[in-house]
Design goal:
By secondary structure, the chain is an alpha/beta fold. The protein is built from four helices and four strands; from the N terminus they run E-H-E-H-E-H-E-H. The protein has a four-stranded parallel β-sheet with strand order 1-2-3-4, with helices on both faces.
């Protein structure tokens, strides 16, 4: 019998309507869950628009920036092994530091990344990555 893993469709994680700190935590939690399945995957990450003006610090129910960094470091090995690609869908007016993080690819995330403003293009890229 020919046993093959079923190729999954790219997972879409829509954090576009959330405050940035909460969006980052949701995305990291979803990516952790995907790596824990121990199956190849690709994901389309719909990012929120940058906040206007200064934003208040994160509330107690949102992990701190240090916690989010620790989480990323803890899931990076799983991303390197199972993630075929992360396609970020972000507005064109994102801050430079967020753009740099998105484009840092394997250095930060442990897997290939791309960024676009087009959801359809993001899905096409992610589908091609998972089928490669």
């Amino acid at each position: 019998m020919d046993v093959r893993r079923v190729v999954q469709e790219p997972r879409e994680i829509d954090a576009s309507g959330l405050p940035m700190e909460h969006a980052q935590a949701v995305i990291l939690d979803e990516l952790r869950a995907l790596t824990e399945r121990e199956e190849p995957f690709a994901a389309v990450l719909r990012m929120p628009a940058p906040p206007e003006g200064r934003t208040p610090s994160a509330s107690g129910d949102v992990p701190s920036a240090a916690d989010r960094v620790r989480t990323l470091k803890s899931i990076r090995p799983g991303l390197a092994e199972f993630c075929r690609g992360l396609a970020f869908v972000a507005p064109g007016d994102i801050p430079a530091e967020r753009a740099a993080a998105i484009h840092s690819g394997e250095q930060l995330w442990g897997c290939p990344t791309t960024a676009t403003q087009d959801v359809t293009a993001a899905h096409a890229w992610a589908e091609a990555r998972i089928r490669a």
